[in-house]
Specification:
With 232 residues, this protein is an alpha/beta fold. The chain contains seven helices and ten strands.
Length: 232
Amino acid sequence: MITTRTAVIQVENITKVYRMGNIEVPVLKGVSLAIRQGEMVAIMGPSGSGKSTLMNILGCLDRPTSGVYRLDGMEVNRLSDDQLAEIRNRKIGFVFQSFNLLPRTTAVANVELPLLYSGSKDKRKRALEAMARVGLAHRAHHHTNEISGGEQQRVAIARSLINNPSIIIADEPTGNLDTRTSEEIMAIFDELNRKEGITIVLVTHETDIARHARRIIHLRDGLIQREEGLGR
């Protein structure tokens, strides 16, 4: 059971403006939110609402134009690119809609990828352990083009777990999957959140997927329109 309720993610009045020549395009227009340790939060919104931009900022893949982002109490705005890369590698796991796996490569080799530059001597052991956590140890040596879409997403989740992150950010993780397979994937996220205490930020446009979360944040036109607590 999660007893610590401190905010692991806190953003205050962040904006993001993209510049295209002389034209400024505001995407986030002053977003403030806090996500507590051990929460599963869904971010929803129509196309163009800013949810992918917010996800990139929360995942330290991009920086806000203004405002403050604190991750585990650290001001992300003040960190160097190398420090951000270290945080991404150590604290955050990413799962994407398109799986982002290397084709014609074994599942376990894909899971090992984040460890390639770490000098770790137990890459294979850790990768197999991560695959076991998502129920896919028996498919470890199959090539990714030999397994189903649902199994490919399990491989991607295992890869996100390889460094034991405290946060997983999942961008439309069921967008390429059928309904039954989507529920199987969400059951994995549920278990990682409830049993292992991993904080999960889920970006989705599917209401039934968002309802696995404890809280839904609705974005529209670069602002939080409303928050919906699900009482979980």
